[in-house]
Design a protein that fits this description.
- This protein is α/β, with parallel strands linked by helices and about 475 residues long.
- It folds into four domains: about 120 residues, PAS domain (Beta-Lactamase, 2-Layer Sandwich), CATH 3.30.450; about 140 residues, 3-Layer(aba) Sandwich (Rossmann fold); about 80 residues, Helicase, Ruva Protein, domain 3 (Orthogonal Bundle); about 50 residues, Arc Repressor Mutant, subunit A (Orthogonal Bundle), CATH 1.10.10.60.
- It is about 45% helix and about 15% strand.
- The protein contains 18 helices and twelve strands.
- A five-stranded antiparallel beta sheet has the order 2-1-5-4-3.
- Helix 8 links the parallel strand 7 and strand 8.
Length: about 475
């Protein structure tokens, strides 16, 4: 026993003196050892790391400790008992290299079916393009790293970490949000249901310091009549008059505000006592509604000083893999089952859906898939039944019924009946007319109209016909 303790002590001393950052996690993903090289690299003292749980997520919490411990978490596959390699990306202060190659070694625990992980990082930074696209598992973890980078970038200037997406449409939205956040202009956030309009409006209000945000009054416009709107706004304004803060009123679904409520709100905006900023969410453009005489023109232009249009999920399908990874890592951040990502088949199935419910619908699907997942990655079988049903239906579309043109259909029937009568009468038109119960002149007219006058349609074209 003494020899074992001595060997363990020597191993600890060896790692402590190493230039490589080294840390050990138990089977609950808690840090139980870290050397000096690790603390120097991440910029946190050891006492803040010891005992902290590492979750495989982008670390969207505002604390530095949470960001670092999330970054240090190995992929979930590393806890399955096999040696693996990878890369650790830890967002660091400007100028510090964030990438380190990592070796993940399984460490046995008292429980036979669990293991910890010893992580040994390279002593120096690795190139940013290192290990990209070598294998499917690497591409999954590269998506995790991309989400880490994007979350870190969006966390710095404003609280935009919930607006993940690398598409041009989302880049434009983030620029517009930063503009709205840095000003006091009235702003309307447009978007389809499930696109997080209210979340974006609250992000604009929160600004770069959510804890120091100005007072906010959210109003559900569909529920507001003129009297309720007036009394609520007046009470809010009296409460804010005691401070120098500029209050903000958030009009939820402003396009559904009744005309009487619009006039009441416009009257208050015209008054000298109004000093509030207005943020609004809407499904339809207020200016377009005003042009259609369905909204107050003056109020529409006052509220629409800045307009932010959120694209539907179907318009930015290239963001789906990153959004799925973000929602999965939010599941990881709760501290339970840890998942590394989605298989290519699962992502392909998700990308092919119409997503009429937008991000809200996607969040429901990913949450259900995380609950059903048995391994470290979500497979096609883990997706909810409704997703697989939609994909199977799309793969076997129903045959489209050909339209029936009534006149053409009836003409075909008439042509067939006349031909049968002519065959039965052996080409005699007078007899055929008697069989059909129509006058002979009428039959002759219909033969011409239906194109049945060619010799090939008569029974004996070489013989003269009676009564012809």
């Amino acid at each position: 026993m003494a020899r074992t303790r001595t060997a363990a002590h020597q191993l600890v001393r060896f790692f402590e003196d190493s230039a490589c950052p080294v840390y050990l996690l138990d089977d609950q993903r808690r840090i139980v050892f870290g050397n000096t090289a690790l603390t120097e690299w991440v910029g946190l003292p050891l006492e803040q790391l010891m005992g902290a749980r590492c979750d495989y997520c982008a670390g969207d919490d505002q604390t530095r400790q949470r960001v670092v411990t999330s970054a240090l978490c190995p992929p979930p596959e590393a806890f399955q008992g096999a040696r693996s390699t990878g890369r650790i990306y830890c967002p660091l202060p400007a100028g510090a290299p964030p990438h380190r190659r990592a070796e993940f070694l399984p460490v046995a625990t008292a429980a036979a079916d669990t293991c910890g992980v010893l992580a040994i990082l390279s002593p120096s930074a690795t190139p940013e393009t290192d290990e990209r696209g070598q294998a499917d598992s690497v591409s999954v973890h590269a998506l995790h790293e991309l989400l880490q980078k994007l979350t870190a970038e969006l966390r710095r200037p404003y609280c935009l970490d919930r607006l993940a997406g690398s598409s041009a449409a989302m880049a434009r939205v983030r620029e517009q949000i930063q503009l709205a956040t840095s000003s006091q202009a009235h702003t309307v956030v447009l978007g389809p249901p499930g696109s997080h309009r209210e979340q974006v409006a609250r992000t604009i209000h929160a600004g770069s310091q959510p804890s120091a945000a100005e007072p906010l009054l959210p109003l559900s416009c569909p529920m507001m009549d003129a009297e309720l709107l007036r009394t609520t706004v007046q009470a809010f304004q009296r409460r804010c008059d005691a401070s120098d803060a500029t209050p903000t009123i958030l009009l939820l679904d402003a396009d559904q505000l009744a005309m009487e409520g619009q006039m009441e709100l416009l009257s208050w905006l015209r008054s000298a006592t109004c000093r509030a900023r207005l943020l609004a969410t809407a499904r339809q453009s207020l200016i377009t509604l005003a042009e259609q005489k369905q909204y107050s023109r003056e109020l529409a232009f006052r509220l629409s000083t800045l307009v932010i249009e959120l694209p539907s999920l179907a318009e930015r399908r290239e963001d789906l893999p990153l959004l799925c990874q973000q929602l999965l890592e939010e599941h990881n951040a709760r501290g339970g089952q840890q998942l590394s990502g989605f298989t290519a088949e699962a992502l392909e199935a998700l990308t092919s859906l119409p997503w009429l419910g937008n991000v809200r619908e996607l969040a429901d699907v990913v949450r259900d898939a995380c609950a059903r997942a048995a391994g470290t990655r979500i497979t096609l079988q883990d997706l909810p039944d409704r997703v697989r049903t939609v994909n199977q239906t799309a793969a076997h579309p129903a045959r489209q019924d050909e339209p029936i043109v009534l006149d053409q259909f009836l003409a075909e029937i008439e042509r067939e009946v006349i031909q049968r009568a002519l065959r039965r009468a052996r080409g005699n038109k007078a007899q055929a007319a008697r069989l059909l119960g129509v006058p002979r002149p009428r039959l002759l007219r219909r033969l011409t109209q239906l194109g049945l006058t060619e010799p090939r349609l008569t029974w004996r074209p070489s013989e003269p016909e009676e009564d012809s």
